[in-house]
Design brief:
31% helix, globular, disordered C terminus
Length: 170
Amino acid sequence: MRKLILAGRSEAGKTSLTQALKGEDVHYVKTQYTKTWDITIDTPGEYAESKEHVGIALGCFAFDSDVIGVLCAADEPYNLQEPAIQGVVNRPCIGIITKIDSPKANVPMVRQWLEDAGCGKIFLVNNKTREGIAELSEYLNRPPKHVTLEQAIEYQHQGLEDWGEGEYDD
């Protein structure tokens, strides 16, 4: 499984998503520091809530991951995601919209925020009911496409959001 770093606001569902992907019971646990699991790197929401921390955290921890997962709850009242975040890291970015069952969900608006941030693929999930988890797991279970530094730079220059979708190493 490709390793996924999770970045998003506090209470967006990063830790719950890790639990759902691992097949565990979902229960709220406040992430106080960056935790590296076998399949995810879970970052505190405060990283996304502070301009000083989000870039540093993504820059440092992204190197230990295969994919950047930018989380945003469907009921977010405002956007914290920077436009074109893809330019900060040399990994593909995906968007993950959580809490899609919320009565205040506005999925089209949140989808636009994630597209503006540079997320190539966007997954809709409900961590508690596991809706959308199978699709995200299927994506993560594809072997990563190995790229050289030169290829990564070229993909970024071309503005590609998903580096070689459908072209995975066997």
